[in-house]
Amino acid sequence: MRNALLAILLLTAPAMAQEIDGEAPAVNAPPAAEIRSDYQRAQANVAPRATPSGPQAENRALKAQLAELTAAHAALEKQYAEDKAALDALRTELSNVEKLSNNAVALQEQNEELIKRNRMLQSEIDVLTASRDQLQGDNRQRWFMFGGLAVFLGALLAVLLPRLKPRRRYSEWA
């Protein structure tokens, strides 16, 4: 119906309005018989309505569309599986990175603790080295005292021992 109305409008377009000396325009229209024949021609050009072969064609089109959608679905399922595998791999990698990060933090803390302990032990080593040096000095002084005492006792014995021994008197000489 819509096509028929459009055809009529297109065919009547040549009608022209003319204005003569300010009077109402006159309309030049084709005769009514011509309009009817144009309408009938337009109706002949209108596509026929769905025929019994139409549902079969529609069924074929729907089957083709179903095949396309099935193929698209399969492709999307494949892409989904690939994306899911990639996501799982990325999650595994992320957990490994987090573990390494946690290990790095733990290693940093352990390193700081070991540095503190090293400084403490180094200061203890310095104290013990100083004590050892002092004891060695005391030990040298003690040995020096023992040596001095031995020399003194040797000198004392050298003086006293000859006096303790009775002298033999040689009367013959005197």
Give a description of the structure.
The chain is mainly α. Helix content is 78%, strand content 3%. The chain has a domain of 34 residues. α1 packs across α2. The chain is rod-shaped. The termini are far apart. About 5% of the residues have low confidence.
Q: How are the SSEs placed, and which strands pair?
A:
Blueprint: H1 2-11, E1 16-18, E2 26-28, H2 32-45, H3 53-164
Antiparallel strand pairs: 1-2
Provide the succession of SSEs.
HEEHH
Note the overall shape. rod-shaped
Look at the structure and give the mean pLDDT. Answer: 79
Q: Ranges with pLDDT <50 over ≥5 residues?
A: 13-20
**Helix segment count?**
3
Determine Rg (CA atoms, Å). Answer: 64 Å
Task: Compute the separation of the termini in Å.
Answer: 186 Å
Strand line-up across the major sheet: 1-2
Extended strand count? 2
- In helices, the fraction of residues equals over 70%
What would you say about this model in short?
With 174 residues, this protein is mainly alpha-helical.
Keyword list:
3 helices, single chain, two-stranded antiparallel ribbon, 174 residues, mainly alpha
